[in-house]
Design a protein that fits this description.
This protein has 10 helices and 9 strands. It has 246 residues and is an alpha/beta fold. The protein folds into 2 domains: 95 residues, NAD(P)-binding Rossmann-like Domain (Rossmann fold, 3-Layer(aba) Sandwich); 125 residues, 3-Layer(aba) Sandwich (Rossmann fold), CATH 3.40.50.720. The strands form 2 sheets. A 5-stranded parallel β-sheet has the order 2-1-3-4-5. It has a 4-stranded parallel β-sheet with strand order 8-7-6-9, sandwiched between helices.
């Protein structure tokens, strides 16, 4: 029986570059798996710096700040894959990467819960007018009144983009006693009692608070314009009812 040959590229010859302070645990995972050449930098690199740095790199790990442009990919003689340690991949020129045979992948569930919790927290801050009271307190004025402040309970939250983050916001909002409506270009199965609106203007007309969770693409550029804002409660209300926040 002939001896089995090892055809995989030797791990000790593979160069890995991790940027933007990616967790040391990630670097250790590679090292524990036998990848000895792992370089970890705390910040992002400019295009010029990355062009110089990426020449002999096989695997690149980035977050959202690093821009992988055609010039960077042209200089990447050995690059096999780019791991985006974040939700999107819009910081990578995907067309050029595909033509170059470079695989690009992301972490679609990273920070999902953190962002969802932040949205709820910011909603409470806005609807209670905490920023105004905070600014006044720093000027030595104590605004001890509830005028213009409200609870989230019973209010309607409009979610634009019902993906991983939007759906998590939906669950948390219902837990706070809110009514949830959402708009998405695709038909999405709602979580809990959320209701999908077929038109964006309908969502704006019904919502007390609106939160946006859509990717930055040509399709979403200028998605919220002057025409859509006309349907918001602030725009069409002539009473003294507190305006919607978004």
């Amino acid at each position: 029986m002939s001896e089995r040959k090892i055809t995989s590229y030797p791990k000790e010859k593979i160069n890995i570059l991790l940027l933007e302070n990616i967790s040391e645990a990630a670097a250790n995972e590679f090292k524990d798996a036998g990848y000895a050449n792992v370089k970890r930098l705390t910040g992002a690199l400019s295009e010029e710096e990355l062009v110089r740095e990426i020449k002999d790199v096989h695997l690149l790990g980035i977050r959202s700040k690093t821009q992988v442009t055609p010039a960077v990919l042209a200089a990447a003689n050995k690059l096999q894959g780019i791991g985006c340690f974040c939700i999107g991949t819009n910081q990578v020129d995907l067309k050029t990467a595909t033509k170059s045979g470079v695989a690009v992948f992301n972490a679609p569930y990273s920070n999902t819960r953190s962002v969802a919790e932040l949205v709820i927290g910011l909603s409470i801050m806005l609807i209670r007018r905490i920023p105004d009271k905070n600014a006044a307190a720093h000027e030595g004025i104590w605004k001890k009144e509830a005028t213009g402040s409200f609870e989230l309970r019973g209010k309607t939250l409009g979610i634009v983009g019902y993906g991983n983050i939007g759906s998590q916001v939906s669950v948390l909002a219902e837990g706070m006693g809110m009514n949830v409506i959402y708009y998405d270009v695709e038909t999405k199965l709602p979580l809990g009692n959320a209701v999908q609106e077929r038109q964006l203007k309908e969502l704006f007309g019904k919502s007390d608070i609106i939160t946006l969770h859509v990717p930055s693409t040509q399709r979403t550029e200028n998605m919220i314009d002057k025409e859509i804002l006309q349907y918001a409660k602030r725009a069409r209300s002539s009473s003294t009812t507190p305006a919607a926040k978004w």
